[in-house]
Amino acid sequence: MMAYKNLFYFKFVNDEDKQRVIDHEPLFLLGRIFVVRPWTPSIDKYRNGIKALPIWIRVDLPKHLWTKNGIDFISSIIGEPIYMDDATARRTRISYARICVVVDIEFKFPSFIPIKIGEGDIVDIGLDYEWVPDLCTSCKIFGHSNSKCIKNKEVSARNPNHTTTDG
Ligand SMILES: [Zn+2]
Hints:
The protein is of the alpha+beta class. The protein is built from 4 helices and 11 strands.
């Protein structure tokens, strides 16, 4: 295993173990998320910080969108869909749909998205996030908030008279 700050490489002895880990949903450990993906050359870009993350969202889905296509449609408007939970897939709990989508650093975590359905009205679809990651708009990465950013601290150090309230 080799590791950068936010990126670890694992080598598996057999393909069966590897597939089992890749098929697993993202793991939350100690408040941090671990996502296992097959290696590709482009994955090395994560070495410089996490620019996209899978997050679980509870979607207040209108009843007529409770179809595979309806759920896929809403998911793909939010981000890149990867999973839905079992209760959503089997529609055993229709109070909300629980989906996992990859969102990027530009994602604003809106509390609803307006959707125009067919020729009909625009419907606001409520979104509830199980976890909102820290993100830094200076570094344009997930993992730390603006107030914890080293870049912001450097700016304050260079300007000793500069006062800040987010401390
Ligand atoms: Zn930063």
